[in-house]
Amino acid sequence: MLRILVILLFFVPAQLLSQGQTRTRKQVTKQYYLNGNLKSITAVSTTLPRYIDPMNFYKKTKVEVTEFDSLSKSMTRQFTRITKIGKDGKPCYEIFYEETIYDKFGNKKTYLRSRCDKQRSKFIQYKEGRVEFIQIHKRRKRK
């Protein structure tokens, strides 16, 4: 009985404090071609603090877009972008960006990933589904 009481005293308040710190809204939109095939799916997630503190206000947005071909219905492009606005967290506006472009057969053509306002980026080019070229770019801050 004492163990259950100790567990309730320590874990229940921690659960209550961890819940409700942020609120996330997700919106999914779909676009269609004139022939009725799916053109793109866009999912936007917005995270805000539940109780807005003017000194530490932030807004984090994640956008995921998938585009499809009009005739073959295969993926042609897919990208994810995460941005953050406010005084809290990293000093970057665009935290993460990732893009993949596919050819008409569904093989990868190019892949691009950048982090923290392009301080680090990676570009990969494919030919017939195999890696042909890789470029890694790191920009270092001067002290």
Quick recap of the structure?
The protein has 143 residues and is mainly β.
Which strand-content bin applies to the residues? Answer: over 45%
Distance from N terminus to C terminus (CA atoms, Å) equals 58 Å
Share in helix: 10-25%
Task: Give the low-pLDDT segments.
Answer: 12-19
Largest sheet: 8 strands, antiparallel
Gyration radius, in Å? 21 Å
The backbone outline, from C-alpha atoms, is flat
Number of helices: 1
Can you list the strand order of the major beta sheet?
Answer: 1-2-3-4-5-6-7-8
Topology:
Elements: H1 2-18, E1 22-32, E2 38-49, E3 58-68, E4 75-86, E5 94-102, E6 108-115, E7 120-127, E8 130-138
Antiparallel strand pairs: 1-2, 2-3, 3-4, 4-5, 5-6, 6-7, 7-8
Structure write-up:
The chain is built from 1 helix and 8 strands, in the order αββββββββ. It is mostly beta strands and 143 residues long. It has one domain (23-138). It has an 8-stranded antiparallel beta sheet with strand order 1-2-3-4-5-6-7-8, with no helix packed on it. The longest helix has 17 residues, at 2-18. The termini are far apart. Mean pLDDT is 82; it is low at 12-19.
Keywords, separated by commas or semicolons:
56% strand; 8 strands; mainly beta; flat; 143 residues; 12% helix
